[in-house]
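Entry type: protein chain
Record version: 2
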Amino acid sequence: MKIKDIQVLKNLSSQGNETIKTTIFLEDGRQESIVVPAGISAGKYEAKNVSCDEAIKQTETIKNDLLNIDWTQESLDTKLVSLNLGGNTSLAISAAFWKINNVERNNAKPQKFPKLLMLLFEGGKHGNPNLTIQEFMIVEESLEKAISDFKKMKQYLVDQKIETTVGAEGGFSPLSFNNNSVLSTIKTIFPDVRIALDTAGSFRQETLGYKELIDNYNIFYLEDPFSDEDWEKWSDFYNQFGQKILIVGDDLTVTSPTRIQKALEKKVINAVIIKPNQNGTISGTFEAIKLARENELKIIVSHRGDDTDDDWIVDFAVHAQADYVKFGGVDRGERIAKYNRLLELGMH
C-alpha cells in the first residue's frame, strides 16, 4: 500500500506533556491517526523517545522517503528502523499504518478477550510515595465485574473517610496508606480475588519481603521484582516461585526480542509485558510477542503511565490475542477511553 502523505501535530498527554499525533494518508483514500504515549518510569533498554519538536522535525525530514512506495508492514518498519528515528517518531508512523489495515470501528466482534488487570491502588512514581509498590491490581474476568469492584473499593474508602484521589493511571493513592494497609484492605474487601503487583524493581530503593507477601496474600502475579540487571536475584526468585505465580518482565525485557531471549535463557520469567512504544515499531513488537508465545510466556499488553485518549492499544491487544491487559483504574479520561473501546468491541 502506498502512502500519499504523512502529517504530524502536537498533542498533550495525560501528564500535560507534549506528544505527537501522526496521521497517515493512503493513496486509496484511507487515513488513520495515532497519538503516542510515554512511560513515567521508563526502562533504560527501551526505545528512546525524542522531544516533540524533534519528532515533528524527524517526520518532516524523512517523510518524502516513505511516499509513493508500495509498503507492507514489515518493509515499512524495516525502513523506519534504518532511519535511526526516535522511538516515538517511528512508532507513530508504524502504528498508524497498522491501524489502517487492522482496525475497523464497526468490525465483527472478536472471539477472545484478554483478562483484565484492574488497577485499584498505585504509588511510587505514579502516586503516593509512601506506597513503594507501584501498582496494586486484581484479576478480573469481565469488564462489568471490574467496574463494580472499582466502585465497591471507592465506596469503602468514602465510608472510611479516606480520600479517593487517584494517581497517574487512575488507581487510588491515599496518603495515609502504606503497602501493607493497601494489601490488607484489598484482602478485606475482596477476600478471594487474585492480586497482581508491579513492584517496579528498577526504580524502587528498598527490598521487599516477597515470600511474606506471597504467604500472606493471594498474590498471583509479580512484575519487575528486581532491577533489570539483578539476574541472579531474578533467577533465585524464579526457582522458588516460578511454579506458583506469574513472574513478569517489563523493565527487564522492554518488548525487545533480544532482552526476552536473554530472560528465557536465564529462566527468570514466565510472563512478559508488551508495550509497543518500548520497541518502536509494530513489526518489532509482534516479533517479541511471537518469541514469547513460542516459549509459552503469558502475554500482557499494557498502556503507559503518560498516556493519551487514543484507544488503539485495545485493538492491538485483542489482535495480538493477549492473555491479560493493563489499562489502569476506571478513572481518568485516557483510561476510560480504553475501557469504552472494550465495550464497543463487545466485552462486558
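Comment: The first strand starts at residue 3 and ends at 12.
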